[in-house]
Design brief:
alpha+beta, three-stranded mixed β-sheet, elongated
């Protein structure tokens, strides 16, 4: 087996779309060390080269998983005209904590257990069950195309509970943080 040259390592890192910092974090080394290895200033230990190559393999696996393979379809959803009671029943039956709001197939909002609980604690009315979803919904979940990699969606999920998968203007699937975490069980 021939060890990769500094140029080989830099080329592969760039092909995978990783910055030196990304690679360093994945390999458990410092970014300056990556920079010095790539420039040929330092001859790395074999164990360090192994860590870098393992990080490349991990990044390649992530890029091979596309959202189409992970998404749930069809997408459970509610409409803006549905009542809070209908939403709560749907969440209970399917064991979900948030749900997209679609208007004729177009994402217009989202609703979550947290929103409903907060509304219940703030509401002066005895019952909020007959309120319309349109009056309490939050922002729509972000959307991606079905061919996008899991690594991109993972970053989006850092700030969102779910991502909708849209193909030709139609919502075809949904991916949640829970779905991405389930990938760890397969490792």
């Amino acid at each position: 087996m021939q060890l990769p040259t500094p140029e080989d390592l830099k080329k592969r890192r760039n092909e995978l779309g990783l910055t030196q910092s990304d690679l360093a974090k994945r390999a458990g080394v410092s970014q300056p060390l990556i920079a010095r290895i790539e420039s040929g200033d330092v001859d790395p230990r074999l164990s360090t080269v192994r860590k870098i190559l393992d990080a490349f393999e991990e990044a390649e696996k992530e890029q091979q998983i596309i959202i189409r393979d992970l998404m749930h379809s069809p997408v459970l959803h509610v409409s803006p005209e549905d009542s809070v009671e209908e939403v709560v029943n749907l969440m209970h039956v399917h064991g979900i904590s948030q749900i997209p709001v679609l208007d004729r197939g177009i994402p217009v909002g989202s609703i979550s257990e947290d929103m409903i609980v907060k509304l219940m604690s703030e509401s002066k009315k005895k019952s909020i069950s007959q309120l319309k979803v349109s009056g309490i919904m939050g922002e729509a979940f972000p959307t991606v195309s079905p061919g996008i990699s899991i690594s991109v969606v993972s970053h989006i999920l850092e700030g969102n509970p779910a991502v909708l998968v849209v193909e030709k203007g139609t919502v075809v699937g949904v991916v949640t943080k829970h779905d991405v975490m389930k990938l760890l069980q397969g490792q």
